[in-house]
From TrEMBL:
This is Metal-dependent protein hydrolase. InterPro entries: MYG1_exonuclease (IPR003226). Coiled coil: none annotated. GO terms for cellular component: cytoplasm; nucleus. Pfam families: MYG1_exonuc. The lineage of its organism: Eukaryota, Fungi, Dikarya, Basidiomycota, Agaricomycotina. It comes from Hermanssonia centrifuga. Belongs to the MYG1 family. It comes from the Eukaryota.
Length: 333
């Protein structure tokens, strides 16, 4: 709906009683928008009171963006985030779907049209919001025939839940409303921290990997070696960019070179077969594995060698030139 700019005080409505992570985050997210920054909060299930609120989340049995009503409990509700995601939304996901791009743009001081806003919007849903949606809607992470080997009760949804009063503690509205504010700050601060990490560290690393991928034939004509002049987390970005750019398997890089973060040396790392795999596309040669220092230099014919891991997934050399020689040799072995 078109919000009346003459309204002096906007009110966010949500249910009272036991609170959950989804509405705690939804309320926090709304207060990151220009319209609802500084908005008041009413926690109630009374329909007449909710009707006085400017926006209502997680209660009321209505999902209607035009009316600013964002509940997900009603019969027939099937809304999903889209963009490849199929998990049914909670109030957190609904608010994030409709307001997330504005929230991201406001937080990182850019415009919603900035391409990186959409990238971050999708990333934050995948890594932070979707699990909250699934947990609130009772959607298991695994099929029922797979028994979990341990319990996870330290996720943010569980931590918010534990802020509710215990069954034998005071449950008066003033106490619970105060704890709700604490819960909303807990999950909201975590969201903002994650957003800032992705904006200030994850995205720049993606740019670095994209540049290295584009320039790899300048490192070796085969295009099988990527060289980074500074260390950055690269695995996740590499696999995503290979998919985005439709790089054929025959043209994908085999080794990645980068400076060690602390030792002043260089690393050569074999690209894994898949993001979570311990297998490599092409491990470093077996005859080098487990060797160190002079023994490795003699076996490889490359000066300045430091080590090659026993599995062949990573090795080291004292110089960039030495690491590059190892990589080029390994391609031929």
């Amino acid at each position: 709906m078109e919000l009346d700019e003459k309204v002096l005080s906007f009110i966010i409505g949500t249910h009272n009683g036991t609170f959950h992570c989804d509405e705690a985050l939804a309320v926090y997210l709304l207060r990151l928008t220009k319209a609802y920054a500084g908005a008041g909060l009413k926690r109630t299930r009374d329909p007449a009171t909710l009707d006085t609120c400017t926006i209502v989340v997680d209660v009321g049995g209505v999902y209607d963006e035009g009316k600013q009503r964002f509940d997900h409990h009603q019969r027939g509700f099937t809304e999903i985030f889209g963009n490849g995601f199929t998990t049914k939304l909670s109030s957190a996901g609904l608010v994030y779907k409709h307001f997330g791009q504005e929230i991201i743009a406001n937080t990182i001081s850019t415009t919603p049209e900035d391409p990186k806003v959409n990238t971050l919007w999708l990333k934050l849903y995948k890594e932070f919001i979707e699990a909250i949606d699934a947990i609130d809607n009772g959607i298991s992470q695994y099929s029922a025939d797979i028994a979990s080997k341990y319990r996870i009760r330290t996720d943010v949804s569980a931590r918010v839940g534990f802020l509710n009063p215990a069954w034998n503690e005071s449950f008066d509205s003033q106490t619970v409303d105060g704890l709700f504010s604490k819960a909303s700050a807990l999950v909201g601060d975590e969201f903002v921290g994650r957003l800032k990490y992705y904006a200030n560290a994850w995205l720049p690393a993606r740019d670095l990997v994209a540049a290295g991928l584009k320039a790899r034939t300048n490192v070796d004509p085969s295009g099988k070696i990527i060289l980074f002049e500074q260390f950055a987390p690269w695995k996740e970005h590499l696999f995503e960019l290979e998919t985005d750019l439709s790089i054929a398997a025959s043209e994908q890089p085999i080794y990645v070179l980068y400076p060690d973060e602390t030792g002043g040396q260089w690393r050569i790392q074999a690209v894994p077969a898949s993001p979570e795999s311990f297998e490599s596309r092409k491990a470093l040669p077996e005859v080098w594995r487990g060797l160190r220092d002079e023994d490795l230099s003699k076996a490889s014919g490359v000066d300045g060698c430091v080590f090659v891991h026993a599995s062949g997934f990573i090795g080291g050399n004292k110089t960039k030139e030495g690491a590059l020689k190892l990589a080029k040799l390994a391609l031929t072995m």
